[in-house]
Amino acid sequence: MSYTYYTFGGKVPGPFVRVRVGDTVEVTFTNNAKNSMYHSVDFHSATGPGGGGAVTQAAPGETKVFSFKALAPGLFVYHCATPLAAQHITNGQYGLMLVEPEGGLPKVDREFYVMQGEMYTAAPYNTPGRQSLDMQKLLDERPEYFVFNGSTTALTEDYPLKAKVGETVRLFFGVGGPNVISTFHVIGEVFDTVYDQASLSSPLTGTQSAITGPGSASIVEMKLDYPGKYMLVDHALSRAARGLVGHLMVEGKEDASIFHTQTPVTNSGGH
């Protein structure tokens, strides 16, 4: 199926923005002249009217500029705040901004950017052809699709995450939503570190999931000890049948002291 998204910069999610605490961020927001409606941007990392959403309401062809100081470290969602905001968000206008602490985050081998979203199509799940938004399903919070990075295949056939045994990976995970909470989980792995709600002050250790609400974010880290295909899911697992699956492909040498089986591994996942 195909679907017409609204976007920031032509991608879902929008660009990953990375700054340091104390930086002054200048935002130049231009609404493409070919668009037919107003758009805006609200940064959860900003302190000020509407996080910028109140001063960036831009008509087609219009540019708005504002600046803010990144006062608090963490990982923050940004999204369109033009009414109906939920309509603009489900149509893809969301992304993440990382405000690093002084000195930066601890070094890891690889970093990945993953966001979960929902689609409220008029036709049932997996109907072929171009789909349109069903506003009543959106208001009733009844998604037809759940997606990582804007597509049911974005992190599987198209662009699986790739890493190697022995590496430590960090996932910047956010929920664009606009409505559904996520219990983010990697099948076959344990998160060594979880920055709950992306708070950098007191990370959790040794957790199975990162509970992340709509419009919120988490940071998870894990050392990869064994090769194979690891599945990214929301552990509300019915959503996997509606598209919400990603793959982390890990290459390297097997260690029988960590995992051992005489049954051939099919890479079909688990649970």
From TrEMBL:
Homotrimer. Keywords: Copper, Metal-binding, Oxidoreductase, Repeat. It catalyses: nitric oxide + Fe(III)-[cytochrome c] + H2O = Fe(II)-[cytochrome c] + nitrite + 2 H(+). It holds the Pfam family Cu-oxidase_3. It comes from Calidithermus terrae. PANTHER family: FI03373P-RELATED, MULTI-COPPER OXIDASE. The keyword Amino-acid biosynthesis does not apply. CDD domains: CuRO_1_CuNIR, CuRO_2_CuNIR. This is Copper-containing nitrite reductase. It is an enzyme of class 1 (oxidoreductase). Belongs to the multicopper oxidase family. Residues 6-102 form the Plastocyanin-like domain. The keyword Metal-binding applies. Cu cation binds at H39, H44, H79, C80, H88, H235. It comes from the Bacteria. InterPro entries: Cu-oxidase-like_N, Cu-oxidase_fam, Cupredoxin, NO2-reductase_Cu. Its cofactor is Cu(+); Cu(2+). Its EC number is 1.7.2.1.
